Amino acid sequence: MKVGVVHNPRSHANMGRSADSWAPDDVMLVRPATREALEVDLVAFAARGVELLVIDGGDGTIRDVLSLLPRAFGDTPPLIALLPSGKTNVLAIDLGVQQGWTLQEALIAARSPKATIKHRAPLEVAWDDGRPTMRGFVFGLGAFVRATLMSKSVNRMGAFHGLSVALTVAGAAVGALMGGARDHWRSGVPLSLSIDDQPTTDQPRFLLMATTLKRLPLGLKPFGPPREGLKILDVDAPPRRLLAALVTLLSGGDAAWLPRLGYRRGDARVLRVRTAEAFVLDGEVYESAGGLTVALGSTLRFLAS
Question: Quick one: pLDDT at residue 289?
């Protein structure tokens, strides 16, 4: 099996550690410093017939690699293994990949006839202005952007992984609950949204989230029961009965009053979004350019154990 490793030395768990000390000689190892260098490396991997692509980094590294994967490998992407070395590693959590999984363990698992392969389709986010399409697993607007910015402060305090998620959720909840209808948390963001073939709605949203993951950190279930596909959570602004809604939504529960008060869950194939506000994809905040399309991408194969 031909193996290529994309190693991000700037990822949290990789700081101060060299990949040269643990990568076998027959493994192709790259450390691209830019997106352009990453694309060159992935094209080289494809030309050399790489069958197992190992991503040693966090969610941002995974997002960047998967976004460039179609240009390098076309319609035949390799099997992908994750060495979760980032701050949160939500995809690794969803797949059940343990923190600290090593390259040696991944290689043994990949060559085993009992290897566990899981399938996940990423989100594909395309700008109307023609910027390159990106692939990721968690998209968000509104309060999710503010919570993401808060999480970066939490990381600087030394909290990572599940603790980081817990503190961020708690901080976002307090910020939203304590403010009035005109508070910057609760007032929402102007947003035009169309889901599949449904009519476009144009009103402020407290929160819009989409994911293709089945399991989130800390067992949170804002999208309802785990299932395949593109799942959404759409919340009007200002949010009503927010405390009760948070308790119900985050636990995966349901209640007849949720949609009546502007809390909507659902499944979709394509979202059309128009907003001047920033959005988040896999932990990175991006400035919007007016129009976006968020769609369900092609299924990829991931090595789980």
Answer: 67
Q: What pLDDT shows up at residue 167?
A: 46
Non-local (6+) Cβ contacts of 270 within 8 A are: 195, 196, 293, 294, 295, 296
Check if the beta carbon of residue 63 is closer than 8 Å to that of residue 133.
Answer: no
By CB atoms closer than 10 A (0-12, 13-18, 19+), residue 70 is: middle
pTM metric for this prediction: 0.87
Q: What is the mean pLDDT of residues 281-294?
A: 88
Q: What would the pLDDT profile of 120-136 be if each residue is shown by its tens digit? A: 999 999 999 989 999 99
**How many whole angstroms separate alpha carbon 242 and alpha carbon 30?**
47
d(CA 276, CA 190): 8
Side-chain-side CA neighbours of residue 25 (13 Å): 0
* CA–CA separation, 193 and 271 (whole Å): 7
Q: Is 156 left (phi over 0), alpha (psi -120 to 50) or beta?
A: alpha
Burial class, 195, CB count within 10 angstroms (exposed 0-12 / middle 13-18 / buried 19+): buried
pLDDT band for 161, please (50, 70, 90 cuts): very low
